[in-house]
Amino acid sequence: MRSWKIYTLFLFGLGLLMGACRAPGVSIMVSAIRPLDADCRVDREHSIARGALNINASSQYLLAVELENILEGVDIEGAGGQLLASGKENRVILTEWTRQYFIYGAEGTSRLILEESEPFSGVLEPNAETLLRVPLSMVGPLGAGEIKRVLLQAGAGASVGTDMVVRFKIRGKIMSSGKKLETPSMEFPIFVYLGDELPLCAEGERLAPVGPCALHGGQDAFVPICCVLGATDGECVN
Fold first, then answer.
1. Which tens digit of pLDDT belongs to each residue from 162-171?
2. β-strand 206-207 against 226-227: which pairing, if any?
3. Residue 39: pLDDT over 70
4. What are the Cα distances from residue 126, in Å, to 78, 90, 123, 134?
5. How many Cα atoms are found within 13 Å in the side-chain-facing hemisphere of 1?
6. Nearest-CA neighbor of 234 among 208, 197, 196?
7. What is the pTM of this model?
8. For the chain: N or C, fewer Cβ within 10 A?
9. Which of 114, 110, 109, 111 is nearest to 99 (CA)?
10. SS3 assignment, position 145
11. Can you list the positions of beta strands (E) in the chain?
12. Exposed/middle/buried for residue 53 (C-beta within 10 Å: 0-12, 13-18, 19+)
């Protein structure tokens, strides 16, 4: 049983497309946001533009961000084929990413409830020849706690919830010069709600790995369930 195969997939929304356009002065950018399967593999055939999260069941929303470095990288040779400059000097070392959580209310009003940052590791080769696809959680540990507090305070239940937008940015530096770079701000909307708590599993059962990266669900249509897991493949046998 692998219900993770059932995705709710969307084409990029207009806002995401606008954010991904190559604006003047932009050197690194997010080119796509993609779903992950139960083994944390990136689904390269689809993009995802919004999500839903039961904050009572999961404090993470997992996906993959696809990054590219559009700086030029050209080898320059001198007399006798001596390498004077390497295109690899325009490699970008990724260092950090930030997330801002906006809760939306009546008539399109919004308010920032929290901002958090975390270290971010990766290397982007120049010329956008090699895309970097990084699995990550769109909701961080501090963000999950604050979102839940806001929902409880507002009395928002499973049938109500609220729309949230995560505005994020990824930062890095050019390896050769140390010049700092960052992606344009991107926005990913998530409907967050207070749904059912995680089930209490009977003796011999465990929470099934139904969600992305074999997590227990709570994200999108991945509902947490208990089952007996097979000793060899870790899948439900009942």
1. 999 999 999 9
2. antiparallel
3. yes
4. 21, 6, 10, 17
5. 18
6. 208
7. 0.80
8. C
9. 114
10. helix
11. 28-34, 51-54, 62-69, 76-77, 83-85, 92-104, 110-124, 132-137, 162-174, 180-182, 186-193, 206-207, 226-227
12. buried
Mean pLDDT (the chain) is 82
* Contact in structure between 17 and 10 (CB atoms under 8 Å): no
Alpha carbons within 13 angstroms on the beta-carbon side of residue 101 total: 23
Distance between CA atoms of residues 139 and 61, nearest Å: 6
Number of continuous H segments (helices) and E segments (strands) in the chain: 2, 13
Q: Could you tell me if 181 and 173 are in contact, meaning their C-beta atoms sit under 8 angstroms apart?
A: yes
Cβ(188)–Cβ(166) below 8 Å: yes
**Could you give the CA distance from residue 159 to residue 182 in angstroms, rounded to a whole number?**
38
Whose tokens are 């999108």? That residue is: 220
Report DSSP state, residue 91.
Answer: -
